[in-house]
Design goal:
The complex is a heterodimer. By secondary structure, chain A is mostly helical. Chain A is built from 16 helices and no strands. Helices cover about 75% and strands about 0% of the residues of chain A. In chain A, helix 10 packs across helix 12 and helix 12 packs antiparallel against helix 14. Chain B has two domains: about 180 residues, no CATH class; about 120 residues, Cytochrome Bc1 Complex, Chain D, domain 2, CATH 1.10.760. Chain B is α+β, with helices and mostly antiparallel strands. The chains are: A mainly alpha, B alpha+beta.
Chain lengths: ~400, ~400
Amino acid sequence: MSSQRTAVENLGARGRSWGRIALVLGIAGLALGLWLGSARGDGFRRFEHAWLVSCLFFLSLSLGALFFVIIQHLVRAGWSVVVRRVAEIVAANTLVTALLFAPLVVQLLRGDSSLWPWADANTVHGNPLLEGKAGFLEPRFFALRCVLYFGIWILLGRWLLRRSTEQDTAQDAKPTLALERRAAPAMVAYALSVNFGAFDILMTLEPTWASTIFGVCFFAGSVIGFFALSILLLRFLQARGFMRASVGVEHYHDLGKFLFAFVFFWGYVSFSQFMLIWYADMPEETFWFRERFHGTWANVSWVLLFGHFVLPFAALLSRHTKRALGVLAFLAVWMLCMHAVELFWLVMPTAEKDGALVSGMDAACFVAVGGIWFFALARLAGERSLVPVGDPRLPESLAFENS
Amino acid sequence: MAESQPALQSLVAEFDDVDSVSAAARAVRDAGFQHFDVYSPFPIHGIERSMGLRATRLPWIVLGMGLTGTTLALFFQWWANAHDYPFKISAKPLFGIPANIPITFEFTVLLAAFGAFFGMLVLNRLPEHHNELFDNPRFRRATDDGFFLAVEARDARFDTRRTRELLQSFSKHPVVECHASTESRAFPIWVRAALAGAGALALLPFAGIVNARFRDATSPAFHLIKDMDSQPRYRAQAANPYFADGRAQRPDVAGAVAFDHFLTDPKTLTGRDGENFCGTIPLPVSDQTMLRGQQRFAVYCTPCHGQAGYGDGLVAQRAANLQEPNWVPPASLHDPVVRARAVGQIFDTIRNGVRTMPAYGRQIGIEDSWAIVAYVRALQRSQNATVEDVPPAERASLGTR
């Protein structure tokens, strides 16, 4: 209800110590993952898949955050100001993901086709579908596109965070107005880059398969991942004494509503993709789902249907679960796990044809990428205020109430 | 007094802003009142807590209606497509969940929306065509800039004097009494008549259905949308006084010649030579004929007889899977009985059908039918061939002997 500025809060020394812990875990995970990967003796083929899943998981959290931040500026949202800074920091944390992802592209340029089979001339030769795509699926052009996608994401995330931080100390609303003005073209750039990025990086793992809604499915999962992470980060920070005066149950309620909405959106688009392929029953399309219903992969598919859609939909339907912070935090953890399962399910059937197998290497890769990613996140947060204290809509956000 | 003054309905206090009406609502709530309401030009955040309202039951109505929609849609699709009139096309299960999800989803949303809208009306006791509060001209400000709080006289804690004092202590405006309307609460007679008339009209279609269902019609069906069903033209064999012979159907002009093919040979047209079927194809057979026959066979015959003619086409396979009781399996073209048949009989079967095989005479032309016959003959020979049938020059390429 008050319009006074909240005290500037930042992570400071605690952020640095959390970052150090994350970095140690990340490096340990990296060493363990590399050792386990080399012990397999498959030329790091399986390791590359596990590494891709982990990179995509943490990349998707930033992409979901990017979407959230841009759309808040686009619609000039008032309620979300107090939770926006955390999202901005997550959205800006893509440079580290680009660096972690880069070795996969370097391997591709060196002629390693274990991840993207279209890079192997023997696979392409004699396959009219792949020969037709050969001009587009070409390692150097692919690398160029990756640079473009990551470039857009890094620039967008950094710009949103920089302008928003400027507003903390600005005397007028210029930074906010600039953000609002450029949010629309930013959203266009975001939509195109995420869609084509998903096509390039994820869908071409099966280069003969194509689904035009695939990028939207990846986007939906990314946004779910971000909202779940956002709820957990805010709970974590509040449990350690940060942001207690600014973020309340009303803000969690709205984040929960977004989580609920995107759980349904994910179910809607994923089912649309499945139903059209099921109904048309064309062998060149159905094989992608056949692989995912083969052996133990079928169990993973069923887990996704119920765990990623039906159960969380039912659980988040009620207003009470979105306002009971313990329940909401549990559902956020659940959705993050399901998001990881979904990415594993999207990537791994090309490497594990016979059935779903999770190994210690997968966990090690996850800890490696996650540790380094959280280290970079803590550094980005640094001495920055955790709440956009200079935002002209801050009072509206502090007084926000769901009726 | 009681006759001249109608019963007291409520005491109404007027306020100028949200804060004062909310404070008054909290005081009335804390005094233990149950039957009171706040009127404001816009929704007030937190007023439900100030008034001590219990949480709405509307979500449960919406959930119940939504689940009803899910169940009804799934049940009806199962009943229509898999039970009452099994939908036996394509290689899909009769009741495949994925195919039924879109309609189920739409119907769930539809009934949930109905539940939300009509549930809201019912819970709010709407529509209410008149309320005594409207008798007070100042109350109209409730849609503009006024805030009102009305405590109803039926509340157990209501006491005219003490309640008035309580309300007055929060309001700068005088607390006014609201009395029951002297006008009748009933709908005017013309509204009731119109509603009854509309209700009766709404029953007419059902009466029509019942009538059509249980009575034999003697006249043609009522034809509302005619499209191009009835056209101003003469039918074959109809009378037309315009012509001297009175017939609408005109004979060919004397000496008219068909400009297209003109097949007249009865053997070519019927496949029969007198009483017996022809033993040879009465048209010249070339490579072109064989290719045409292969292509027509693939279009018309393979669905049942299969690519190689063994009677294992997709339709036959599906009928076997469904264990259709009335299905006659298509003959294998390599059955000795079929192989022994004269070409004329195969031609006749294509033209006129046999058992449950329909007649294809209308779809397939005479020449094309003979082309198919030629192809069937070649197919039969190919499936019962020996090495001797292969020209000696080609034998080496087979890799045998």
